[in-house]
Fold each of these.
Amino acid sequence: MRTHTTFPAALLGAAWLLVQLPQPLHAAPMMSPPTTLSTAVTSSILARLVAQRQAKGLDNDHHYRITAQHPGANGTQILRAAHTWKGLRVFGSESVVVLDKSLKILSESASERRQHLGTGGANRLGALTASFAVQPRIDSKAAIAAALASLANSLGQSAVNVVKPSAELLIYPMMRMQRVVGAGAKEEAELNALDVHDVVERYELAYLVRTRMRVGDQPVYYDTIVSARDAAVLDQWNMLQTVIGVGKSQYNGEVPISTTLANGSYQMLDPERGKGGAFGAMAITNANNGSSAGKVYTNATNVWGDGKQFEGGSTLGPNGQTAAVNAMWGLMNTYDAHKNVLGWLSLDGKNTATYIAAHVNRGYDNAYYSDTCKCMFIGDGTYFTSLAAIDVVGHEMGHGITASTSDLIYSGESGGLNESSSDIAGEVVEAYARAGGKGDRFPEEGNDWQLGTEISRNATPLRWMYRPSKDGSSPDAWSTSLRRLDVHYSSGPNNRMFYFLSRGSRADSAGDYYSKYLVKQPGAMTGIGMDKAFRIWFHANTTKFTSSTNYADARAKMIEAAEELYGKESKEAVAVQRAYAAINVGPDVDELGAIATP
């Protein structure tokens, strides 16, 4: 028997997948049904891509490998293809391919970090990379050992594997920032993001080592690049993607939760959303102050929680159930908003069920998305209160959507954009939920443009979208130092961009909503509203961004997305240019003359 309460539902704002269409689109399209392309079809598409090698200056050792597929809008499909050379993946080099209903290639968005490999005309680095050797001198076991040794200080003796470490042999481009022609004489502080670009300095044969471990109750997730020649660690980054019936929720009063009645007991299994996955449906589990997900929550009645912060004791009683109510409400709203507004199903667009584990560890001050289970873990907090607030759940599920689409590398500028995408999702989700969770548009009110206000015991948010520097660590604008920051701080400028794109800026230079980089007319840019801003962002992230997209590339792809959705020279496309100009990414432009769209 399936049960569902009938209280007003509140939905989480979501993300929306749209692809290039013949005419600008001004209303939400219908998402294509989840489809698995046959081997024959994908082989045909790969052959079409391979046929373009000579025109791109690539030799016959260059190839493609399909890594992901998800539905697009109005019958379209999105394929992501890694670039390979002599059978090895070139890290951060890939193509995003949009297919129409007849599987014709409509567009290809590519990160070209492969071009200097081989004997093709695109190689500008010479003989060394033309004959690049792909035979490793160490094996994968040695690479894993080197990665673990580099983490020894943080792991300690008690580390255990969440999943077995893995090592992928690949070609790793060593990148450096180079000034473009005309920017050589500028002072460092005067540089705009478009004054520099990333170039390949050399290639390294390397292993990408993925370690997903636990030290006591704490997850320790890292990706490490290890030289396949001498086991030297070339790069390393933290992969823990965090936020720093009738349910009585902690933050939202009585809310509806969808449950299942089986064998005389109610379960926090949502039979209306998602299929398959670990539990057969969307679920909330009880980690019971441990580090594993645990079992699905059960209760003798279909009334859950007491609406109060968990203060210890049993995680199964009414007080312990409250964290589960928080999580289920957020999960339901996330799913519904993606489906109802955007036609996007679950995290992967294919309606695969996910789950949230509540009561992770004891007094754990964090929440995180795990790529090992494609699920979320939520702590009870000590410095914070329960981390299952609506914007935090939206943030973590946003990581799942990014992982299924652009898969932005969680390091440097791309890592900052990854975090920003989740912050944006959290705010859009909050607005949609607070507005009642109905309708096919994202509302303009309801969120506070601050991440984590509800979970703070002193009402101080984790991040301010409109003025990131208020946290004392995040910059308000792009600079050459951005890529050296923690991704939770390098996200700041893009968060501010999205606020300006949605709400506009102000001319008061002493206020939080002013940008000195807006020098055209009017001095305070005009926003286009959250609904359009988020549609543009999600379109760019899912159909144009590659895993190595940086701020400059994000701007270019966002302009393309706005033009496809609303037309060239539209006020939306102009607003994107101004919003990025406001964070020192690209030049400012006048708003006058922009074409208004419905």
Amino acid sequence: MFTGVRPLGLALGLALSSLLAPSAVAYDRITGEPFASRSPVYAEQGMAATSQPLATQVALDILKSGGNAIDAAIAANAVLGLVEPTGCGIGGDLFAIVWDAESQQLHGLNASGRSPQSLTLEEFQRRGLDYIPPYGPLPVSVPGAVDGWFELSEKFGKLPMSQVLAPAIEYAERGFPVSDLIAYYLERSAPRLGQYPGFKETFMPEGRMPKAGERFANPGLAYSYKLLAKEGREAFYQGEIARRIDQYMKENGGFLSYEDLSSHRSEWVDPVSVDYRGVTLWELPPPGQGIAALQILKILEGYDIAAMGFDSPEYVHTFVEAKKLAFADRAKYYADPEFAQIPVKGLISAEYAQARRAEIGERAAKAVEHGNPALLHGDTIYLTTADRDGNMVSLIQSNYRGMGSGMTPPGLGFVLQDRGQLFTLEEGEANSYAPGKRPFHTIIPAFATREGKPWLSFGVMGGATQPQAHAQIIINLVDFGMNLQEAGDAPRILHTGSSQPTGEVMTDGGVVSLESGFSYQTRRELMKRGHVMQENLGGYGGYQAILFDEANGSYIGASESRKDGQAAGY
């Protein structure tokens, strides 16, 4: 059980400091003990918050050398692909939200890949499969991250990609000491993925995974990064890397082809938003699950959450029931908008939230149907950066299921993603498998504004945890008055077992897991209301955030205490 935050007790709702209070650490009124794991970080010129200190320091180095927040985000992501391969890499996809200081606008980037054109639904049926397997060649879709880097760089970046990738290349060649947490996840990945060609040669050159503190180098990844620095995105999608991926997949029963890679392009999209008590939360539209966070907040806006109190059965129950409703819609509607009509405006409207809110009762719902909004036409890493000019980047990137499919093209240093597992093989559904289609996606960046001005760039990695945690971060800040670090350190509510876009249907109400810090009395009352409570040792996500303090003209940073993260500025 997570113990990085001290138990808060029933007094938490009374003990929370205001968002920009002079005291950097809040205290529990009963115990007198601090419950934030650390103080927020303050800086004026630039800020970076990532899940690994080496990546944070590289981002700051890029900012200090004349780069902007976009350059810093790409550089940090490249380092994370090396030092945290258990959560990301250039074999995966990417989503980003950018606040452009010059235009004073938000821009959304969907850099996710599509399914292979040669792999059909009939092929899965011929093999007698009811679901797409999690590993091996079948769940592999086009990796979109590299194209995302170059799209971001070309539209907003200042530095050449050769300079942006240089720190990651140096670390990949020289090696780096593996952290405890990454060593743990690497060791867990070995039994599942070691059977696939190229994996052991890349990540287990001595026949085992590196242990904590040991130096690990990845010359294959350094080679790939050098190609990108020299030849640009074409090296990955039309050049040597594309040809080697194509050959590897053909030799190992895969379907991803050179043609799939060469035809790939990212898509710039408009973020969508809802207002919540004076804060506007922005998410990307499907195929991601970001609008689930918006739906949850709009439903909860009709309740006096602050009066309920943080550690109260009323708050936890209401939150969980709102999440069930949003996830029922997520299972029904969220998919690639090129293949399905998705009623985004209806799903996040105030009128629809009011109708769904009326479905919440005093007891835990065992089954929840999707709603019928008006159809209007029209493992993962998260990082965030900010620069002296006011640009801010919210970026999330993943292979899915930790290290991905296990399929590792030799000599390139990365694993191909298994994101295609998130299709359903049921025909006629919005998220049904089809060639050339983007699967439902779990990774979502977030951004919040106040009165049209940038306020908060943040994200919480971790599968279906993400929209639940996005909503909780906003609630912690807005309703419970926590500061930026406290909002991430506060114990989280996690509900699992909802209906899924992959076809599973909730019939038993699912399971509620509460982190250490919620009282026994709250847990007992939730059980009386019909909730199934279960301890959860992980899955509570990983938070990074940068807040722009307009009054003082500076940034405030916070980083996840549950992981290796670091927020730092200058």
Amino acid sequence: MMFPLDIIVGLCERSSIAVLKQPKHPNSQFGWISAIPDTESISSKTVGNTVYVVENVSFAPKNATCVITRPDPDKSKWDQNSDHIFISTDLPPITVADILQRRLVNIIQWNDKMAQMLEDGCINQDLLKASESVLKCYVGLSDSTFSHIAHTPNLHPLDKHSQYFVEHGCYSQKTVDQIRQSGLMHKWNSQDFTIANNDESILDGFPYASHVIKRHGRYAAHLIMVSPTRITPHYIFLFNLLAKKVEVCLSRYWRLENPLEQRYTYFLKEVLSGNTYDKAGLEERARMHGLPTTGLFEICVANSAWKTMPTEYFARLILTEIPECKVAVNEEKIVVLICADSNKPQNLIDTEKALCNLAQRMDVEIGVSDRFTHLSKADFALEKARIALNYGHRYSQRYIAFEGQDTETTTMYRFYRYFPYFATDPFAHSEKFIAKLIVRDNPIAALRTTDKTRGTNDYEILRVYLRSEGHINMVCEIMHMHRNTVMYRLSKIKQAIGEDLDNGDVRMYLRILYLLSD
């Protein structure tokens, strides 16, 4: 473990040893303190890593960082350009080295103890309690809403703000207002290192140190230490050791509780952005992240969760109540991937219903794409779900009169119902999407491809069926086919496109696809 030279000053002060000259480069690092008089046996590799306590600078190894006892009274002879630290004490060098090294060992043991606590699954309260004997200062940890996470249990807070924090589990509104008015919030959002303030401050004039903990580049938690005395670099170093351990502990908690930290999340975001690689690469990465590449899929998008709760809270509810769903969060939007085995379509329906009920219970609107059969199509399905959500929010009230206030009408908006609104919206800039829909991913294009492969005529049969409003006799007459043949071909068409032809919204969607294709 390496220490900055600045820490020696604090260790000397705690041992009642007066420091006459500070180090010129206080951030230079060392790992050990020694008082070895026989310099000939010292390896050159250890010289720069060790601070030597000697009677006179001439006894120290060449180019070594030294702590000198009983310096020459004539300060003009002191080497002001070196990192030598001059102290005043009657103690012999070996005693000074032993005192300082013991204190360094205590710091190392404390740091190792906290590391072991993290391995054993400790909480932040345990880390702060373990810091009491070393820091001897009140330490409090709050989240970005100024709510309590942990504090040192056996050290009484000095200032009234910390006292309120301990008693009520949050900072008072008056304190929060003072923080905002003083501009501290802005500083914390951009703060990347520990800041010590020994002047008069918001904390009743007591010296304090603050360390901001960020998550995905945003201010997420705040660790603060309030001291009865001036905060020296020695205490800042110790406080930073604690802050690093607290940050690890919080990161572990966020991984367990935050849907952003599911193991598949970042891969799913890549897929949703269209970064799907080649087929072999996609299958390999999907297997690594526990996602299937084939089956039955739907994409759902929710962007109104912020109205009644944090977005992450709704995502966490989905993961808890419907573990079959895969969730990704992007700012205020939640994207849900529903997947099921192609031989078990009922599982997809059941998952969809559970999500629908949860959304209705939490008053969240969701846009739903049509079904697709390969994970590589997820990015385009996401566009469909966004269209459904956008236009469903605008026009869903039109369906309440004849459908009632059921979940399908007021909560879940399906792409095939609201696509006609998008296709006929003159302000939608829909050309690029429609061109992609026609050439890439639509059920009637799949029928046309199948007809060429198998020599069937399902594309025209479906067109006539839609134009005749589902009258089988009219289809038979126009296509010159027997009724049983038409019924058989229609059953195959339903299987191929994966949609319910008895649904009026589906029939409207398919008719528009025919018009666009023509």
